[in-house]
Design a protein that fits this description.
The complex is a heterotrimer of chains A (about 300), B (about 120) and C (about 130).
Chain A (H helix, E strand, L loop, with lengths): L1 H12 L28 E2 L5 E2 L17 E12 L3 E11 L3 E11 L1 H6 L7 E14 L12 E11 L2 H6 L6 E13 L4 E10 L18 E13 L2 E8 L13 E11 L2 E12 L5 E12 L1
Antiparallel strand pairs in A: 1-2, 3-4, 3-14, 4-5, 5-6, 6-7, 7-8, 8-9, 9-10, 10-11, 11-12, 12-13, 13-14
Chain B lengths: L1 H24 L2 H5 L2 E7 L2 E3 L2 E4 L4 E6 L8 E4 L4 E3 L8 E5 L4 E7 L6 E6 L1
Parallel strand pairs in B: 1-4, 3-9
Antiparallel strand pairs in B: 1-2, 4-7, 5-6, 5-8, 8-9
Chain C lengths: L1 H16 L3 H4 L2 H18 L12 H15 L10 H5 L6 H17 L4 H11 L3 H4 L3
The chains are: A mainly beta (about 300), B alpha+beta (about 120), C mainly alpha (about 130).
């Protein structure tokens, strides 16, 4: 109800400069950056607000329930035989709704040649995401067991349709859904996240969706533990299970260990050691993950 | 007969003299003295200026939700300190001297009540 | 002599382990200091300055320090209603978090470790429901 009221007020006052009746005092800007540092998370490789691999129930950006925050990010993963590059943006609305977009480039390097695709063949995919905070507040509900709970959906469009079908995938674009729970235990300076995702994506969708080994939505489990070392530094571990629908390309779970630095509410840098599991018939792809997020 | 008339006259005179004595003894000003009610509400005095006559009493009522107030006057000619006023309670200040006084709040510095006593 | 030393060390270690949050925060002296700093920062902070407009700051510092002492299981009592004292100010989430940040800065200046700061914030966080009314 409050979210709808805020949306109506905002749509009537943008681009006007005079504060409208019902809006917070004239001094409070729309891009209020009111939430505490690090509580907006960073951006996952699919663009959602959270860690690097696992989305959180927290809404991207730093806006409070009275404001709006925008974020942009760029990520590079250099694994043993392949690289993944991601760029995207997101908007957090009144601490209630998150909308994100990410473009992924999956550079197969030498493996491309091995697969007969050509050296450095690159798969491209668009991911459009939405997240809705259902209930709870991870930060101030310190006196209850209730986590912050959010419902998320992503629609992925793989641009190599004929190729992924040839590799055994059932389709080149698909939706997936997740339920994320986040709980900040300030008493222990720890953030816990757990996510259940219904998906049939192969390697995050980079090799299409569904396959000869299965084409049903199956629940995948994702979790992360983040230790807040100081106001601007967090260390975390993430784990994510993945389906295994393609017989030619065994797929496993992915995990990472990361450190995220938040020098201000305008930027963050995340460095991680990541293990994406075996990809496209190759050995396990582990390597370095680096991400930069900016926000307003 | 003449004795009855004298007694009645004497009684009437005594009664009149008695009334006059009582009348002189009564503090007419005190009987006419007013009480004026001012509220502490919205972290302000309402009204924020009053005019009183000497001998009037100002009643200040804390009608401000759950907020505490603390009325005080610090002047050459008079001092008053209510201490912390719990919500719903009131304090009384009697003004026996003429002049202008300001009632302040020790908790809310912007609260000011101007009192003019004639 | 060695046994006396060991006993003293063990005693000190076990009492440090069992320290209350009040003790970890440094007792009333430090609590009063970082409370005062928090208020000074918030009065100067453009996000919250106008909310301190009509307040006796010395009294506010004293009363809030009492409250924090109580929250941290110190030897104080504080019985006033948080909602009652804040409702007229019409505070938003932004105001609340701004003061939290100023409290964090004030505790940083007192050298209070981050994990101890978070223990205090854990107890203060639920109060947002009483303090934020807008």
């Amino acid at each position: 109800m409050r979210f709808l009221a805020r949306m109506v007020v905002v749509s009537f006052t943008l681009p006007g400069s005079a504060p409208a009746v019902g809006q917070p005092e004239a001094a409070a800007p729309l891009f209020d950056r009111g939430r505490l540092l690090a509580t907006g998370g960073v951006s996952t490789v699919e663009g959602a607000g959270g860690g690097g691999l696992v989305p959180w129930a927290l809404i991207t950006g730093y806006a409070t329930r009275d404001g709006v925050g925008v974020t942009g990010f760029g990520t590079a993963v250099v694994a043993r035989d392949m690289n993944l590059y991601v760029a995207g943006a997101g908007i957090g609305l009144f601490d209630r709704v998150e909308l994100t977009y990410a473009r992924q480039w999956f550079d197969t390097r030498g493996v491309g040649a091995k697969l007969g695709l050509g050296q450095g063949y690159t798969f491209e995919q668009d991911v459009v995401g939405a997240k809705l905070r259902l209930l709870g507040d991870a930060v101030y509900a310190q006196d209850s067991w209730l986590p912050q709970l959010s419902l998320g959906a992503q629609y992925k469009i793989n641009h190599q349709e004929s190729l992924v079908r040839a590799l055994g995938a059932a389709r080149a674009q698909d939706a997936e859904f997740y339920l994320a729970a986040s709980k900040l235990l300030l008493e222990h300076s720890v953030l816990l996240n757990g996510t259940v995702r219904l998906t049939r994506a192969n390697q995050f969708g980079l090799l299409g969706f569904g396959g000869d080994r299965g084409d049903r939505y199956q629940p995948q489990f994702e979790g992360s533990v983040v230790w807040l070392a100081s106001r601007d530094l967090a260390f975390g571990a993430e784990y994510r299970t993945k389906p295994d629908n393609l017989s030619f390309a065994k797929e496993g779970d992915a995990w990472d260990l990361f450190v995220a630095w938040f020098p201000s509410k305008h930027a963050s840098v995340t460095l991680a050691y990541v293990d994406l599991g075996p990809i496209a018939g190759q050995r396990t792809q582990n390597g370095v993950y680096l991400s930069l997020q900016v926000g307003f | 007969m003449i004795r009855c008339e004298r007694v009645r006259t004497a009684a009437a005179v005594a009664l009149c003299l008695g009334c006059a004595a009582v009348a002189v003894g009564i503090n007419w000003q005190a009987l006419a003295a007013r009480e004026l009610l001012v509220s502490q509400k919205g972290r302000a005095f309402q009204p924020n200026e009053v005019a009183l006559a000497r001998g009037d009493t100002l009643v200040i009522l804390n009608d401000d939700g759950e907020l505490l107030h603390h009325a005080f006057i610090r002047a050459e000619r008079m001092n008053f300190d209510s201490g912390e006023q719990e919500p719903g309670t009131s304090v009384r200040i009697r003004f026996t001297q003429g002049g202008t006084f300001t009632v302040n709040c020790a908790i809310h510095p912007r609260m000011r009540l101007a009192v003019t006593v004639r | 002599m060695r046994w006396v030393l060991a006993a003293i060390i063990l005693g000190a270690a076990s009492s440090a382990h069992a320290a209350t949050l009040y003790e970890q925060l440094g007792g009333m002296e430090r609590i009063s200091r970082f409370t005062a700093t928090m208020i000074d920062l918030s009065v100067a902070d453009p996000r919250t300055a106008e909310k301190f407009d009509n307040s006796n700051l010395d009294r506010l510092k004293r009363v809030i320090a009492q409250h924090l002492c109580t929250v941290a299981d110190g030897p104080c009592t504080y019985t006033r209603s948080l909602r009652g004292s804040h409702v007229q100010l019409e505070l938003t989430q932004r105001h609340f978090y701004a003061v939290v940040e100023n409290l964090q800065t004030a505790m940083d200046r007192e050298g209070i470790p981050f994990r101890v700061q978070n223990r205090l914030l854990a107890r203060l966080a639920p109060m947002i429901r009483e303090v934020v009314t807008r």
